[in-house]
Amino acid sequence: MSSVASKKKQTPGSSTVEELDEVLAVIPVPDFAPLVLSQVQQSSGTGSGTQTLTQFIQQLQSLHPGKRVAVAVLGLDKYYSDQKLSAKRKHREEVTGQKAKGARKGHSQLETAVTRFQVEEAVVSAQLQTGCCCHLVDNAQEVAELVKTFTKATIDKPNKKDRFDSVFTFLEEGGTGVKCEKDGKGLLKVWRLQLQQLHNLGPEMAAAIAAEYPSPLALMQAYADYPNPAEAWKVTENIVVRRGAGVLETGRRVGQQLSRRIHTLMTSTDPDKLVK
C-alpha cells in the first residue's frame, strides 16, 4: 500500500508547527505496476475497469484539497532487474524442462509486468491530466533525499519568490543583467539596452545613438549645449541608422518622433510622465 505524508514546517524559536501545502505519496512497485497497466490498457481501449494511475492521483488530490500532490515510486529499478532474471529463469526452465532451484522469493511476486515505455507513457499521461509529478526512486534513502529536497524548496520559496521580479516596470521582459568592470567595460552595452527600453527603438538604432553619444552624460551635455533648449531633441534626429552590409545595406534616420521620446526619457523630471 502507498504511504502519504504532508510536509510541515516549524517556525524557528517557536513550538508552532505549520502544515505546508505539499503532499508526497510513496507507492511501492507492486501497487504501482497494476495502475500503470490499467492506464495503458485504458488508453488503448482495452481497459478492464480497474483503477488507473490517473484515477489514483485524482483520488489523492480529492483527499487533500488545496494541496500539491507528488508521487514517489519506490523500487522500480529493482523491479526491472527482477523482471530480467525472471525471464531468464523461465527461458532456462523451458529449455531444460526442470524448474530452477533456489529462486528468490521476490521473483514469484512479479504478478504484473510492465515495460519502461509503458511506465513512461502512463506517467506522462497522468501528469498531463492531473499536473502531478511522479518521481522514480530506488530505495528508502532516495525517498528521504526527495523529502529533504522538497521540504527545503518549500521553505525557501517565500525568500525566492521575488528574486527574479523586475525592480523596474520598464525593464525588458526576460532581459538579463550586464556585468560591468571597474574600468568601465560593459557600460556601453548597458547604455544601449537602456535606449532599447523605448518602443520601436531596436538594437541598430541604439548602437547608432550610442556611437554618437557613448554615455547618457554625453547626450545630456549635447542637450544642454543646444542653442534652443525647446528644440534640444533635434540632436539625435539626423543620426543615421544603418542595417545590413554591402549591396544590401540600408540606412534611415532616427527621426523626429523617436528623438522627442528619447529627449523626454532623458530630461523629464515628472515620475508620472508617460513616454508615448
Summarize the structure.
Helix content is 45%, strand content 14%. It is α/β, with parallel strands linked by helices and 276 residues long.
Give the uncertain stretches in residue-range form.
105-109
SS class: alpha/beta
Percent helix, as a range, is: 40-55%
Task: Please describe the biggest sheet, giving its number of strands, its sense, and whether it closes into a barrel.
Answer: 4 strands, mixed
Spatial strand arrangement across the major sheet: 1-2-3-4
Would you mind describing this structure in some detail?
One of its GO terms (cellular component) is nucleus. Residues 87-107 are annotated as: Disordered. This protein is of the alpha/beta class. The protein is built from 9 helices and 6 strands. Helix 1 packs across helix 4, helix 2 (53-63) packs parallel to helix 4 and helix 6 packs across helix 7 (203-212).
Any descriptors?
two-stranded antiparallel ribbon; elongated; alpha/beta; 276 residues
Write the layout of secondary structure elements.
Layout: E1 3-10, E2 17-28, H1 29-43, H2 53-63, E3 68-74, H3 76-96, H4 116-130, E4 134-137, H5 140-160, H6 187-195, H7 203-212, H8 216-225, E5 240-243, E6 250-253, H9 256-267
Parallel strand pairs: 2-3, 3-4
Antiparallel strand pairs: 1-2, 5-6
